[in-house]
């Protein structure tokens, strides 16, 4: 699996992987805040049957990347939706491998 998404502007809500699409383990997630001065607030979570399991809820400072690897968490895309929400008026990206 390899997903790259870039976001610009205010609040974002997105489904990154859909439950049941395939049986793939996520190995790494990198979230990068490209803004020169503003923080990015993100919540990354798994969802199944309207129940949410928060993986990450944090502020990412300007010009910083945050990396989550399989040592920090592990899940199978067959079992859960992977979703993200953000606040802050920044340009940012997420890479999932």
Question: Mind sketching the topology for me?
Answer:
Layout: E1 3-9, E2 12-17, E3 28-33, E4 40-48, E5 51-60, E6 64-69, E7 81-87, E8 90-96
Number of helices: 0
The largest beta-sheet arranges its strands as 1-8-3-6
Question: Major beta sheet, specifics?
Answer: 4 strands, antiparallel
Helix content: under 10%
Q: Shape, please?
A: globular
Number of strands: 8
Question: What's the quaternary structure here?
Answer: single chain
Fraction in beta strands:
over 45%
Order of helices and strands: EEEEEEEE
Q: Enumerate the spans where pLDDT stays under 50 for 5 or more consecutive residues.
A: none
CA gyration radius, whole angstroms:
13 Å
Distance linking N and C termini: 5 Å
Mean pLDDT: 90
* Class by SSE composition: mainly beta
Identify the notable features of this structure and list them briefly.
mainly beta; 8 strands; 97 residues; four-stranded antiparallel beta sheet
Structural write-up:
By secondary structure, the protein is an all-beta fold. It is 0% helix and 60% strand. It has no helices and 8 strands. The chain has strands spanning 3-9, 12-17, 28-33, 40-48, 51-60, 64-69, 81-87, 90-96. The strands form 2 sheets. Strands 1-8-3-6 form a 4-stranded antiparallel beta sheet, with no helix packed on it. A 4-stranded antiparallel beta sheet has the order 2-7-4-5, with no helix packed on it. The protein is globular. The termini are close together. The model has no long low-confidence stretch (mean pLDDT 90).
């Amino acid at each position: 699996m390899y997903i790259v998404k870039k976001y610009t502007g205010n609040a974002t809500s997105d489904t990154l992987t859909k439950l049941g699409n395939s049986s793939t383990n996520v190995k790494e997630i990198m979230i990068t805040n490209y803004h020169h001065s503003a923080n990015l607030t993100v919540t990354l979570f798994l969802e199944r049957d309207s129940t949410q399991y928060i993986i990450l809820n944090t502020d990412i400072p300007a010009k910083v990347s945050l990396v989550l690897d399989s040592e920090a968490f592990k899940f199978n895309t067959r079992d859960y939706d992977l979703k993200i929400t953000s606040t802050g008026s920044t340009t940012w990206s997420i890479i999932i491998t």
